[in-house]
Amino acid sequence: MKSFAYVRAGSVQEATEAYAAHPGARYLGGGTNLVDLMKLGVERPAALVDVTRLPLDEVEELPDGGLRIGAMVRNSDLAAHPAVRDRWPALSQALLAGASGQLRNAATTGGNLLQRTRCPYFQDLTKPCNKRVPGSGCGAREGVHRDHAVLGHSAHCIATHPSDMAVALAALDARIELYGPEGARSLPADGFHRLPGDHPERDTEIRPGELITGVLLPAATAGLPSLYRKARDRASYAFALASVAAVLHTGDGVVDRVGIAFGALAHRPWRARKAEEALLGAAPTTAAFEHAVDLELAAAEPLRDNAYKVPLARRLALDVLNRLAPPATP
Ligand SMILES: Cc1cc2nc3c(=O)[nH]c(=O)nc-3n(C[C@H](O)[C@H](O)[C@H](O)COP(=O)(O)OP(=O)(O)OC[C@H]3O[C@@H](n4cnc5c(N)ncnc54)[C@H](O)[C@@H]3O)c2cc1C
Ligand code: SF4
């Protein structure tokens, strides 16, 4: 392993300054993804800026009914937090569907959002990969791509984003809070991760040196019925083949609030805007759910070996929507 400097930051300011002072630095959260990639030689940071001691490990109730989650809050603590379990259950369910108990005890909110794709070619230095080495090619397109994207992929990359938590955050209209050389800003969770396009080496809209400081769950989705479901090869300790997070509320017999996001189908959590548009104002019937989900998944462009993901995602989405608003009529 290449040698690297190590700096433990005591404040957000110290962390961003240390990052700027060491070109090629990486922030270190729980290390459950970054250290693995360093062992494989995929990541070769000049310095690790350890951010685990930053005072960003609290979950704070906001006066307006929202929730601010510090970037260092561990995945297991977040999943178990009473406010998350009661008012944004899809987030708790998504976290518990990810990784293993030991990993969730170490993994942080910020690190989970910035974990890299699990594409095996990305992790193998002997294989071409445009995400790891821009311009080198994509080994997966003609190779093993059973787990890869069916929506929004490009000729340059067909990888999926692996985080379960990010899918729930996208459906729940969360925002990602950042601090960097240009100051503080926030981005919608839906829009934080990118589609690959011509630059698959860029996973997110984060700017160089920016630190994730927290996640904001808005009052607007607090207490609404929400659910997360994930299909995977094993009952635990496996990444999603397809997943769905949804929040759905009905009033006066029609859908008056809806958010749906798919996981493991694209390079980012896939917010199902077409399906949402079709459902808003409609009666929550089986036919309406089917029409909405089919409208969204019509954009799918499956590859040789992953067409199964489309009907799988369809069934998951219909199950979730039916559970959130049991249809009164067929
Ligand atoms: C065997 C295994 C199975 C897994 N299964 C799942 C699964 O089913 N679902 C799932 O969602 N995940 C799964 N994971 C992934 C796991 O959830 C992630 O490794 C973890 O969430 C990453 O968090 P971390 O704090 O350890 O991040 P790190 O490994 O510390 O960091 C990851 C990346 O984020 C950057 N970073 C960290 N914190 C910040 C910050 N605050 N601001 C800016 N940059 C930052 C780092 O520089 C690095 O690039 C699995 C992992 C393993 C090893
Ligand atoms: S799918 Fe993306 S991450 Fe995987 S080999 Fe192709 S370019 Fe690399």
UniProtKB/TrEMBL annotation:
<keyword id="KW-0560">Oxidoreductase</keyword>
<feature type="domain" description="FAD-binding PCMH-type">
    <location>
        <begin position="1"/>
        <end position="222"/>
    </location>
</feature>
<dbReference type="InterPro" id="IPR036683">
    <property type="entry name" value="CO_DH_flav_C_dom_sf"/>
</dbReference>
<dbReference type="GO" id="GO:0071949">
    <property type="term" value="F:FAD binding"/>
</dbReference>
<dbReference type="Pfam" id="PF03450">
    <property type="entry name" value="CO_deh_flav_C"/>
</dbReference>
<protein>
    <submittedName>
        <fullName>Molybdopterin dehydrogenase</fullName>
    </submittedName>
</protein>
<dbReference type="InterPro" id="IPR051312">
    <property type="entry name" value="Diverse_Substr_Oxidored"/>
</dbReference>
<dbReference type="InterPro" id="IPR016169">
    <property type="entry name" value="FAD-bd_PCMH_sub2"/>
</dbReference>
<dbReference type="GO" id="GO:0016491">
    <property type="term" value="F:oxidoreductase activity"/>
</dbReference>
<dbReference type="InterPro" id="IPR036318">
    <property type="entry name" value="FAD-bd_PCMH-like_sf"/>
</dbReference>
<dbReference type="Pfam" id="PF00941">
    <property type="entry name" value="FAD_binding_5"/>
</dbReference>
<dbReference type="InterPro" id="IPR016166">
    <property type="entry name" value="FAD-bd_PCMH"/>
</dbReference>
<dbReference type="InterPro" id="IPR016167">
    <property type="entry name" value="FAD-bd_PCMH_sub1"/>
</dbReference>
<dbReference type="InterPro" id="IPR002346">
    <property type="entry name" value="Mopterin_DH_FAD-bd"/>
</dbReference>
<dbReference type="InterPro" id="IPR005107">
    <property type="entry name" value="CO_DH_flav_C"/>
</dbReference>
